Amino acid sequence: MTDNLAPETADLLAGIRSWVEIESHTPDIAGVNAMADKISTDYAKCGAEVTRVPGAGYGDHLVVRAPWGAGSNAPGILIISHMDTVHPKGTLETFPFRTEGDLAFGPGIYDMKGGAYCAMRAVSDLANESGAPLSVTHLFVADEEIGSPTSKDLIVDLGKAAKYVLVTEPAREGGKIVVARKGAVRYEVTTHGEASHAGSRHADGRSAIKEMAHVVLKFEELTDYERGTTCNVGLIKGGTGTNVVPAKCWIKVDIRISDMEALDEVEAFVAAIKPENPDVRIEITGGLDRPPYERDPGIDALFAQAKEIAADIGWELEGLKTGGGSDGNFTAQHTPTLDGLGVDGKGGHTNYEQLKISSLQPRRLLMRGLLERLT
């Protein structure tokens, strides 16, 4: 029940609900653009300048500039959020917005409409008051859930122009924010063999699946938990029938790395892969998807500032490193970046996705505090 909520919290929850009830699955261009329309309308109320960047096969991106500091060329603060979710259109029919005690449920509520909305409200608060020391740009991208293929260049360009980057991905493990992330390396591997009848002409065939079995085992050996490297062969497809020696097999590989030195190791490993059967050809494409987001002195200083603000609000802020990637991976190499500044909760990408209602106002105040104190 929400009847007993403080007015500020009830207002935040109502705004988040209005965003959650616009379904915005990444491939659903109309849905994502409807979300962009809603954000543009909400941000316009505080006088923000909203620029729409057409997507290339996906929804549009939004570049929102706070009304203070207009025209300034000095590096400011970049907030990064994403509008898209992993939930297909129609999910609201079986998983509608609802509340239960301190929890609010709904598709995309935790990842990341709750945090994105709280950040928007923090900017709007300051726009309606005295502004902040630095200019603020709030970037909303339309394709983060599939790796930001059409927004990556925009993220990098705006990140390089900023002094600080704040990412509204959800908090982790009870409210911790993210100060480092692993990088992601992705490959597609195809083995090309020779088809033949599996019964009468088996010896004439060259099995692409058999060769791929060797390849899979080689890739899986990359996993080294102490080194921080993990490898997962997540998709595989091959063959045309049980009575045909398979001429083709295909896999997708996801590798997570802690630093750029590990990327060198992975690339050297991939370059050295050779077929066990010289009559089968191995084709490998892909490479670095998101660079590692490594903690450095600039990030340490930014985290210390956030920790101080959180203490003033009333809680002890902790930081962690996570294996998942975000758009913060694209900015952390050149600009101090804090991630996981969104709401507390759990269940991202699931049918029980939820946020803690009690985290809304503290997260809004943390974002506001950063905007007010960073100089």
Helix content: 25-40%
The proportion of strand residues reads 15-25%
- How far is the N terminus from the C terminus? 40 Å
Largest sheet, in brief, is: 6 strands, mixed
Count of discrete domains:
2
Mean of pLDDT: 95
- Give the CATH superfamily of the largest domain: Zn peptidases
Rg (CA only) = 23 Å
Low-confidence region ranges: none
The helix/strand order is HHEEEHEEHEHEEEEHEEEHEHEEEEH
Structure keywords:
18 strands, six-stranded mixed β-sheet, 9 helices, Alpha-Beta Plaits, about 375 residues
Protein described:
The protein has helices spanning 7-20, 29-44, 91-94, 109-127, 152-161, 208-220, 260-271, 297-313, 360-373, and strands at 49-53, 61-65, 77-82, 98-100, 103-105, 136-141, 164-167, 177-181, 183-192, 196-197, 230-238, 244-245, 248-257, 281-290, 319-322, 337-338, 345-346, 354-356. By secondary structure, it is α+β, with helices and mostly antiparallel strands. The protein folds into two domains: 7-182 and 293-373, 3-Layer(aba) Sandwich (Aminopeptidase), CATH 3.40.630.10; 183-290, 2-Layer Sandwich (Alpha-Beta Plaits). The chain has a six-stranded mixed sheet with strand order 1-2-6-3-7-16, sandwiched between helices. The chain has a four-stranded antiparallel sheet with strand order 4-5-18-17, covered by helices on one side. The longest helix is centred in the N-terminal third of the chain and has 19 residues, at 109-127. The chain is elongated. The two termini are 40 Å apart. The relative contact order is 0.18. Residues 179-272 form the Peptidase M20 dimerisation domain. This is M20 family metallopeptidase. Its cofactor is Zn(2+). InterPro entries: ArgE/DapE_CS, Bact_exopeptidase_dim_dom, Pept_M20_glutamate_carboxypep, Peptidase_M20, Peptidase_M20_dimer, Peptidase_M20A.
